[in-house]
Amino acid sequence: MTKILFVCLGNICRSPAAHGVFQKLINEAGLQDKFQVDSCGTGSWHIGHQPDERMQKAALKKGYDLSRLTARKLALKDFKQFDYILAMDTRNLADIIKLAPDHYQGRIQLFLDYADDKNLLEVPDPYYGGEQGFERVINLIESGCEGLFEKVVNVAHA
Fold it and tell me: Residue 52, class by beta-carbon neighbours within 10 Å (0-12 exposed, 13-18 middle, 19+ buried)?
């Protein structure tokens, strides 16, 4: 089983959106028994909260229901559990690397490494912006999830 963790700052916008988009790809392909997906944040401000309402609305417009997700903070146990720990931006990546034990054998990298547009490194945080920012983020996340899905399904079947 391949285990993937999406990480952003507060776990209420970008990482739960990636969690929801990737989970839907898995479900539609009938691969629920091959993958485990989760999301978390590097900060603790929103622990126990549902994703931001604006993100839920933008996601739902595209068919992704995030309402069952709740925010949690990245923990040391995540490094024992997940094969891929994917950061939404370089700050998240640095925070993950700082916390990672030396013996971690999985991949820690930027999520958009899997997206079509190789000119973008980061998924921008839409929290302080308007509705359009959330829609843009969903589009970026779809691209990253599709690329990641293609990569991990090919690896799993190799």
Answer: buried
pLDDT at 129: 85
Can you read off the two tokens belonging to residue 29?
């392909």
Taking each helix axis from N to C terminus, what angle separates 53-61 and 14-29, rounded to the nearest 10 degrees? 30
Cα separation, 39 vs 147, in Å, equals 18
E strands, 9-144, where? 35-41, 84-87, 107-110
Are 8 and 15 within 8 A, CB to CB? Answer: yes
pLDDT of residue 131: 83
End-to-end CA distance of the chain: 14
pLDDT the model gives residue 124: 96
pLDDT at 117: 85
Active-site residue, 125 included: yes
CA angle at 30 for the pair 24 and 31, rounded to the nearest 5°: 85
Tokens of 143: 């691209």
Mean pLDDT score across all residues of the chain: 95
- Catalytic residue list contains 13: no
| Active-site pick, 89, 95, 125, 145 | 125
Per the residue annotation, which of 13, 14, 52, 145 is the catalytic one?
A: 14
**100: three-class secondary structure by DSSP:** coil
- Which carries the bigger pLDDT value, residue 156 or residue 131? 131
